[in-house]
Specification:
Layout: H1 2-18, E1 53-63, E2 68-79, E3 85-98, H2 101-107, E4 115-119, E5 123-131, E6 139-147, E7 164-176, E8 182-197, E9 203-217, E10 220-231, E11 240-248, E12 253-264, E13 268-278
Antiparallel strand pairs: 1-2, 1-13, 2-3, 3-4, 3-5, 5-6, 6-7, 7-8, 8-9, 9-10, 10-11, 11-12, 12-13
């Protein structure tokens, strides 16, 4: 009997550690944090960049509760030992924001602050062009990404104080046009898995999805996409967004404009103006 009681008492701390973590009131989601906390990542269009590509942009976000966010964005795609494998890095380098009483009531952060600025999270991915399009075979890309926790402002409701990672694949098929201004019409589907930490021992696992139509011409490319991810907690972790953009082709330069609208669990309008360059 004594041996049994000793064993039971010794095992109690381990059993306590195994108890599920309470997530009541947890707001680590795209609905309650800033627009750069964990946005839906731009999907690949079934291909990688065959040449070095760099981009800088300015974003402005108009929140549904009157809040405003501005950021300076940077991105680079680096072909590694082959054009079919890229190392991609992007981040909102720095953001400034202005809250309203309504937006703070919606977010309910640990500390209320009307305005400020923060450094953003760094995203690092490896993009692999697995299959090239042939008559019966579509373009297929595989991407493995890491989200750092460099944006440390959890108490103000701007960034999660935790890292994340994602894996996704894009399948694309193009319909070409011959001898004209229009070059091709491309259809893309995307699916994947996204994970981020929401507590000391709990992580949120989300299914990623998306679809895109892209039109390429001699002068510009334009695209429209519907994307999102769906977490299991249900605390505003199921954003679905519309993304549209136009990129102009001017030799190596790529001037661009883009717009994003949150259908669900992403209460923001995003407007982007940027400039890319193909080296």
């Amino acid at each position: 009997m004594r041996k049994f009681l000793f064993t039971l008492l010794a095992a109690f701390p381990l059993a306590a550690l195994a108890l599920p973590e309470s997530l009541d009131g947890n707001r680590s989601s795209s609905l309650y944090f800033g627009p750069n906390a964990l946005p839906v990542p731009d999907m690949l269009d079934g291909a990688t960049s065959p040449r070095l590509y760099a981009e800088v942009a300015f974003d402005t976000f108009r929140g549904f509760h009157g809040d405003r966010t501005f950021d300076f964005f940077a991105k680079v795609n680096v072909p590694l030992f082959t054009p079919r494998v890229n190392l991609s890095v992007w981040m909102p380098v720095i953001e400034g924001y202005r809250n309203t009483p309504a937006s703070l009531d919606h977010q309910q952060p640990m500390e209320r602050r009307m305005k400020g600025h923060e450094f953003g999270n760094v995203y690092v991915t490896t993009d692999i062009h697995v299959f090239r399009q042939k008559r019966l075979v579509p373009d297929v890309t595989l991407r493995v990404g890491l989200v750092t926790a460099s944006g440390d402002s959890d108490e103000y409701g701007r960034y999660f104080d935790s890292p994340g990672y994602f894996v996704d694949t894009s399948v694309a098929k193009s319909v070409g046009f011959k001898n004209g201004f229009f070059e091709e019409l491309r259809f893309v589907l995307n699916a994947g898995f996204l994970c981020w930490q929401v507590g000391k021992v709990t992580q949120n696992d989300a299914f990623m999805y998306g679809g895109k139509v892209k039109l390429a011409t001699r002068a510009f490319d334009t695209s429209v996409a519907v994307q999102g991810y769906s977490g299991w907690i249900g605390n505003g972790d199921r954003p679905c967004v519309l993304k549209a953009g136009v990129t102009v082709k001017a030799r190596g330069f790529r001037p661009l404009v883009a717009y994003q609208y949150g259908f669900r669990d992403y209460p923001f309008h995003q407007f982007r103006v940027g400039l890319g360059y193909v080296f």
